[in-house]
Every structure is written in C-alpha cells, then in structure tokens.
Amino acid sequence: MTREADRTGEDGTGDREARPGREIVAGVDGSPESLAAADWAAREAEHRGLPLRLAHAWRWEPLDLPLVQDREAQERVAEEVVRTAEAELTARHPKVAITSEVLPDTPVPALLGTLDEAEMLVIGSRGHGAVAGFLLGSYGQQVIAASTRPVVAVRAHDDRAAEPPSGEILVGQQGGPEDSEAVLRFAFETADARGAAIRAVRAWSLPSLYAYSPASMRLADDAGGLVPFEEKALREALAPWRERYPHVPVTEHVELGSAGQVLLTTSGAAQLLVVGRRAKRGALGQRIGSVAHAALHLAPCPVAVVPQG
C-alpha cells in the first residue's frame, strides 16, 4: 500500500526541487517516539528539499494459541498507523512530498531494505532509562549497527528536536581526514541545509608508556606538543569541508578526555549530535561502538550515527 501527497508551489514546480532517487525515510509504528522521529524527518526533508517516505513494518504471523486472530483487522491497524502519520505531517509540513507504505516484513529487515534510495533513516528512541542497553530497543540498535546510511535517533517530547535557532551541529572527529570523511560530510551537509554553525570536537588521551615511539613523538614535537598536534589534525580534517562550505561557521574544540565524555559535556547547546560508527561483531552480534552507544543513550538532543569505512 502506497499513498502520496504531492504538494507543489503555485508555479507547479514546488518550493525546492528534490534530487531524483533520494529521500528521507522515517520508521513509524504509532508510538510517540516514532511520531517525534517522523516529525523531525519531515523538517529535515524540508530543509534539504527532499521527499519523505514513512515506513511501517507489519507481517502476518499467526500465534500458536487458541485465540481468534483477525488478519484483516490487524492489517487495517497497520494501514491506519501510516495513514494517520501521513495526514498529521501533511498538515504540518505542506511543502514536503510525502509517501507512506506498510512493508510486509519484520522491522529490522524492512527498515534496512529502504536504504538503497535513502539519504538517511530516522527512527524513534525511548531516551533515558535505567537499563542503557534497552533504551533504543533491540530493533533500533540492530538497524543502526547494520545500516549503510546515516541513522538519526529522536526521542519523544525532546525539546531539542524543535531545532533552537542558536543550536549548533556538534560533530565528533577522530583519526585522519579519510577516517572522518563520512561523518564530516553529513555534518556539513546538515549545517548547510539548516543555516546552522558547526562545532567540531576532537578528544584525545595521553598515550600509554607502550604507545610512545620516536616517530610518533617526533610528529608531536614538530607540531609543538601534543595539544598543537591534535589541533593540527582537526584543522587538516576540516580543511576540505570548510573549502566546500565556506559560509558554514565552524568552531574547533580539542579537549583531553574520552570521546564519549567530551562529546556529551559539549552537547548542551547542540540541536544535533553527529558521530561515526564502525560496527564490530561480538559474541551477541554487531555492536555500534562505545562512542555511538554513549551518545545515543545519554545525549540531550537527536543523534545521527554515520557509518564509516
């Protein structure tokens, strides 16, 4: 089932022409978290001049129980989820071309299957809680770990999702320019679309005794010390993006500490936190990494997790 609201400007061309073959996808299931995510996605679609697709996963799976199970009734409920979300978003964001559909699959493969044409995927998050491993829900963590596109997690009733005009796009930078290319691209594209400023954060730690080597210390000495070395690394990583987006204001922030800790302590004024993710496979499946995990569960704003490498 697919329904589309194709809204254009008075000249019939629309306010902003969407790039062909690209869209923003939002997963909806009727929960307050997913509806907040869909609203965030609609605003981002308007910023970027892209269409929005609402996706709800539903597959008929009869239970092995002596109960009356009405497949048609369940299907109508699934259709109502996307129909209601589309109607509400259409009223609030009339400039955005919106489509919606029910995907005949379970949530994780259904959402991952939307990524071929997606600029990003936006999902809901339950926010803070006592058991950190379950705040996103198992589906959300699996999607983020396996996604080939950026995934944005948005909480219900998150004041930061309203995009305060003074809010920065906060982005974590690690390694060299190639290591952080994807995460910086996403951050600069987002800041450019929103007319926002960027705060680029690079956290560093004192090397252990066994990490010292003549070659590494020579590089630090040439830069004037460990702090200037880290500052130089951040400048070099930002240089090509500053050249590509010269009108985007950028603040450089280098601080001693763990990456997760530094990002969280500087996220108070952010409208979006952007972090990179290299998925690692552990005994219990794919993991999203400690920095992304900390950001998703503790940051006071929506979080974009960008796959790298």
Give an account of the 3D structure:
The chain has 309 residues and is of the alpha/beta class. The protein has two domains: 2-157, Rossmann fold; 168-307, Rossmann fold (3-Layer(aba) Sandwich). It is built from nine helices and 13 strands. The chain has helices at residues 32-48, 71-92, 107-112, 138-146, 181-194, 214-223, 226-244, 259-265, 290-298, and strands spanning 2-5, 23-27, 52-57, 98-103, 118-125, 151-155, 168-172, 198-204, 250-256, 270-277, 280-282, 285-287, 303-307. Strands 1-4-3-2-5-6-13-10-7-8-9 form an eleven-stranded mixed beta sheet, sandwiched between helices. A two-stranded antiparallel sheet has the order 11-12. Strand 7, helix 5 and strand 8 (198-204) form a beta-alpha-beta unit. Helix 8 (259-265) runs parallel beside helix 9. The two termini are 36 Å apart. Mean pLDDT is 81; it is low at 1-20 and 128-135. InterPro entries: Rossmann-like_a/b/a_fold, Universal_stress_UspA, UspA.
Order of helices and strands: EEHEHEHEHEEHEHHEHEEEHE
| Cα separation of the termini | 36 Å
Output the CATH class name of the largest domain. Alpha Beta
- Number of discrete domains: 2
The strand count comes to 13
Strand order of the largest sheet: 1-4-3-2-5-6-13-10-7-8-9
Can you tell me the residue ranges where pLDDT is under 50 for at least 5 consecutive residues? 1-20, 128-135
Helix-residue proportion = 25-40%
| Rg measurement, Å | 21 Å
Strand content: 15-25%
The CATH topology name of the largest domain reads: Rossmann fold
Number of helices: 9
Identify the CATH architecture of the largest domain.
3-Layer(aba) Sandwich
Task: Give the biggest beta sheet.
Answer: 11 strands, mixed
- Name the shape in a single word: elongated
What structural class do the secondary elements suggest?
alpha/beta
Q: Mean pLDDT score, rounded?
A: 81
Domain UspA: 22-155, 169-307
Family: Belongs to the universal stress protein A family.
Region (Disordered): 1-29
InterPro entries: Rossmann-like_a/b/a_fold, Universal_stress_UspA, UspA
